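Colleagues,

For the teaching module next term, I've prepared a clean inverse folding example: a structure given as tokens, and then the sequence designed for it. I'd like students to try predicting residues themselves before seeing the answer, so please don't circulate the second half yet.
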């Protein structure tokens, strides 16, 4: 017999099959000795009250072994002789577009300006050790995109747009833990995700697709308002080349050269609202104490605590973004004279610190000008000002309570940010519309979460890459550009996604519409 049950149990019971079986016997009258296996289908933590519970949806196998697989793997076919589709960008949007094209019987040719996921590691290390940023290989550019070395969080609210469960199953098929199929806030981890990405690339190659690293798109090949290919440069050799086929453009939220090219080529784009602020870093134990309502913190059976905070200040949202429990703050600049910060966590979320972006909503009418690139220029000015306050990649920072009180910090606490911190009056040099809203937002969060507003926490500037500053205009049905046929703006960089999973979903949708387009013209 197989039964599915909703359970509400203590953390220690949730961590043990034996104790779960005993709970089932006591609460549901199921003989514990008859339980062969308990499969957890859904798992979430409820820490709203002083006593923390774990909510589980379980499948109980009574007097029989589990028979069905956790998921049915996708069969990817040989497409080596099939029509080509050019996929520009090998982040989640591009990777999932390429894999879906293979399912549909098309041959993806993937162009990625950065290095493969393994070789990227040396360039990331150089940012910390030598304070140098390779503009083609960094935390944003390279195989896997911005998510490869910045956490691998898979939580999304975009379930109406596509099959989120399928995205998670594809990750599992390529080596991610099956826990992501059950967890309410699934997470692969920065230490595990690169191998998963490499496996996805190997699937593309094994099926007859192509992946070209250090190959940078320089332009689109357009014939009578139809995109028929891509011009590119091989960065290692310096020679140019042309790839022919319709184009899925999935270049990510930091490909500013692409946005400049689109505007200069009169390809329709528009400015898009974003959010700007800081990375807020607390001791992880303090966040555990606050969220789990216990001086002992998380204890033996609970994970590093997460939080999600949001309020309205002077007509704009102030909220936490990309919360990284037990994680690191990382340098995410993509060029010279920039300081940009982001966050990540390893799979065990085991560091001494927890951080999140704390950001203020910026609408397009908050920034003067009519240019489609005005939000991008706004980002660039902030990042350069931050660089001037810091020292190369050493980031300007201020203790949290000092920032709210408008006073300089005499010193700074230990930090996970490897390049280091330098004390700076963020409350003075950040734009007043941002700084004042952050100060009021922090005061509000401190009132509702005792201990959160503290000088044990530090603000690290500046967080600007929360989303794309530009939207590439496309038709809602065909997903093609509003004027150029055969061009499919895709994912976060095109303004249609916000994270790994939603970008993956959009990549699949673009692949499906591209297949329909090719079928219609042949």
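(Answer key — instructors only)
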């Amino acid at each position: 017999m197989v039964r599915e049950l909703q359970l509400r149990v203590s953390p220690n019971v949730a961590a043990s099959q034996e104790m779960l079986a005993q709970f089932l016997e006591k609460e549901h009258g199921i003989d514990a000795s008859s339980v062969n296996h308990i499969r957890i289908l859904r798992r979430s933590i409820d820490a709203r009250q002083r006593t923390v519970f774990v909510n589980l949806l379980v499948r109980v196998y009574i007097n029989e072994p589990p028979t069905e697989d956790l998921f049915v793997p996708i069969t990817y076919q040989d497409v080596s002789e099939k029509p080509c589709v050019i996929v520009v960008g090998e982040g989640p949007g591009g990777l999932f577009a390429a894999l879906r094209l293979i399912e549909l019987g098309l041959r993806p040719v993937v162009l990625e300006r950065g290095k493969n996921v393994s070789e990227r590691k040396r360039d990331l290390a150089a940012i910390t050790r030598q304070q140098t940023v390779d503009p083609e290989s960094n935390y944003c550019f390279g195989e896997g995109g911005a998510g490869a070395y910045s956490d691998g969080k898979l939580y999304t609210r975009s379930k109406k747009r596509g099959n989120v469960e399928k995205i998670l199953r594809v990750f599992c098929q390529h080596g991610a833990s099956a826990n992501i199929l059950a967890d309410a806030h699934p997470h692969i981890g920065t230490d595990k995700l690169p191998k998963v990405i490499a496996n996805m690339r190997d699937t593309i190659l094994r099926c007859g697709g192509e992946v070209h690293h250090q190959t940078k798109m320089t332009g689109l090949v357009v014939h009578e308002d139809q995109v028929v290919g891509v011009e590119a440069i091989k960065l290692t050799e310096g020679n140019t080349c042309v790839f022919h086929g319709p184009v899925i453009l999935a270049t990510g939220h930091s490909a500013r050269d692409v946005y400049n090219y689109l505007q200069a080529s009169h390809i329709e784009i528009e400015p898009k609202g974003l959010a700007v602020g800081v990375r807020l870093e607390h001791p992880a134990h303090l966040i555990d104490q606050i969220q789990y309502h216990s001086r002992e913190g998380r204890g033996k059976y609970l994970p590093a605590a997460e939080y999600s905070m949001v309020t309205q200040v002077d007509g704009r949202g102030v909220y936490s973004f990309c919360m990284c429990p037990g994680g690191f703050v990382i340098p995410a600049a993509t060029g010279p004279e920039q300081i940009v910060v982001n966050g990540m966590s390893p799979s065990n979320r085991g560091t001494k610190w927890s951080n999140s972006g704390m950001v203020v909503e910026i609408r397009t009418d908050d920034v003067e000008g009519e240019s489609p690139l005005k939000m991008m220029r706004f980002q660039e000015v902030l990042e350069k000002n931050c660089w001037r306050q810091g020292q190369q990649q050493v980031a300007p920072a201020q203790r949290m309570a000092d920032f709210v009180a408008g006073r300089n910090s005499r010193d700074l606490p230990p930090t996970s940010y490897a390049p280091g911190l330098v004390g700076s009056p963020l409350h003075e040099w950040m734009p007043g519309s941002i700084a004042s809203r952050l100060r009021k937002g922090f005061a509000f969060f401190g009132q509702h979460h005792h201990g959160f507003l503290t000088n044990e926490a530090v603000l690290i500037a500046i967080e600007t890459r929360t989303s794309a500053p530009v939207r590439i205009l496309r038709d809602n049905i065909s997903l093609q550009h509003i004027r150029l046929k055969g061009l499919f703006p895709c994912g976060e960089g095109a303004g249609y996604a916000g994270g790994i999973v939603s970008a993956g979903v959009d990549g699949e949708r673009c692949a499906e519409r591209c297949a329909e387009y090719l079928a219609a013209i042949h």
